[in-house]
């Protein structure tokens, strides 16, 4: 799949729950729209491309990116991780989005050398995000790895799933 340019909207049916997904591009020109599309949602899904090489420093605070609320993948290198982490932290710090659960998806885990969920948590500094539920899964859309887990997570946070 190629990165989203602009945005797309889809509805996904999972059991008795319909999930409306806004897939918003991570390019710099689209990032100012993220907050607008995240208002009133049951969860924010931030997608990163785990096949992008991690920064060489193991203590780096940088991170990659890509999807609905997903960070940029401009210049397909490890610097993208830093941009992704900064953009994610800026997004979740917005008062209108306080308390909204966050799901970070590290996609492309089928690519050799892809970052693990633990590495993504570290590089994206997810442990620093407070006052909201934060989860991170390593997935592969191509091989359908952890897609079921992701859908269950989202359904559990939907108004219908909370009943």
From TrEMBL:
Entry GO terms, CC: lytic vacuole membrane
Disordered: annotated span: 54-76
InterPro entries linked to this entry: Arl8a/8b (IPR044154), P-loop_NTPase (IPR027417), Small_GTPase_ARF/SAR (IPR006689)
Keyword Magnesium: yes
Biased composition (Low complexity): 54-75
Transmembrane segments: none
Alphabetical GO biological process terms: protein transport
Binding, GTP: 26
GO molecular function, one term: GTP binding
Keywords: GTP-binding, Hydrolase, Magnesium, Metal-binding, Nucleotide-binding
Residues that, per the record, bind Mg(2+): 4
Entry annotated with the keyword Hydrolase: yes
Family (UniProt): Belongs to the small GTPase superfamily. Arf family.
Identification of the protein by name: P-loop containing nucleoside triphosphate hydrolase protein
Organism annotation: Tilletiopsis washingtonensis
Lineage: Eukaryota, Fungi, Dikarya, Basidiomycota, Ustilaginomycotina
């Amino acid at each position: 799949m190629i990165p989203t340019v602009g945005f797309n909207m889809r509805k996904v049916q999972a059991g008795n729950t319909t999930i409306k997904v806004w897939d918003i591009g991570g390019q710099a020109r689209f990032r100012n729209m993220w907050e607008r599309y995240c208002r009133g949602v049951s969860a924010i899904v931030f997608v990163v491309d785990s096949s992008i090489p991690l920064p060489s420093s193991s203590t780096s605070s940088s991170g990659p990116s890509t999807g609905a609320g997903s960070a940029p993948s401009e210049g397909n290198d490890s610097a993208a991780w830093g941009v992704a982490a900064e953009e994610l932290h800026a997004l979740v710090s917005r008062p209108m989005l306080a308390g909204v659960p966050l799901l970070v998806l590290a996609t492309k885990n089928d690519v050799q050398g892809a970052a693990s969920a633990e590495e993504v948590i570290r590089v994206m500094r997810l442990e620093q995000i407070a006052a909201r539920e934060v989860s991170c899964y390593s997935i592969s859309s191509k091989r359908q790895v952890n897609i079921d887990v992701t859908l269950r997570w989202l359904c559990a946070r939907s108004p219908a799933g909370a009943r």
